[in-house]
Design the sequence.
């Protein structure tokens, strides 16, 4: 209820939260929350809750031990989630699995640090990088595959 005159603050951190939080994103409601961490050597850099933070589930799966800077779920498919990392954009098509499979999206950005991801109402995704500019792509209903994820350098200032 943060948008009211009298918000009530609650600690919803998980018992396995270690390190520094890099991103917090809501899903389809305030009960669905994604949290990422940007530390090396911790068990999970990706957490998810469906109950507003009462319980948290680690979603790192087979993701390597590298910092995660940002996270965005495909608004057209709840199974598809992309993350911005120190090695570009990674994605999964099976986020609801106990141990999701993560793949690097070889998408024209190379191994550049992606500090933030954002999605517009028209499902355009923007990836803000460290030193390489802003890249854009678009979520669709088609299942993500390595050869289907394409980000291009964004030269359109309309976002």
Sequence:
């Amino acid at each position: 209820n943060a948008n009211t005159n009298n918000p009530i603050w609650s600690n919803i951190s998980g018992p396995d939260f270690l390190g520094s939080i890099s991103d917090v994103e809501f899903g389809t409601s305030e009960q669905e929350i994604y949290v990422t961490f940007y530390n090396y050597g911790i068990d999970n850099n990706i957490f998810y809750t469906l109950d507003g933070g009462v319980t948290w589930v680690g979603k790192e799966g087979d993701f390597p031990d590298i910092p995660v800077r940002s996270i965005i779920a495909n608004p057209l498919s709840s199974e598809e989630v992309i993350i911005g990392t120190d090695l570009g954009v990674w994605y999964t098509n099976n986020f609801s699995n106990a141990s999701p499979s993560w793949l690097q999206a070889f998408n024209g950005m190379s191994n550049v640090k992606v500090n933030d991801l954002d999605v517009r109402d028209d499902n355009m995704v923007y990836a803000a990088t460290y030193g390489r500019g802003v890249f854009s792509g678009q979520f669709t209903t088609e299942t993500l595959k390595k050869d289907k994820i394409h980000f291009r350098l964004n030269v359109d200032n309309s976002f």
About this structure: Confidence is low (pLDDT under 50) at residues 152-159. The chain has no helices and twelve strands. The longest strand covers residues 21-26. Residues 73 and 91 are 10 Å apart (CA to CA).
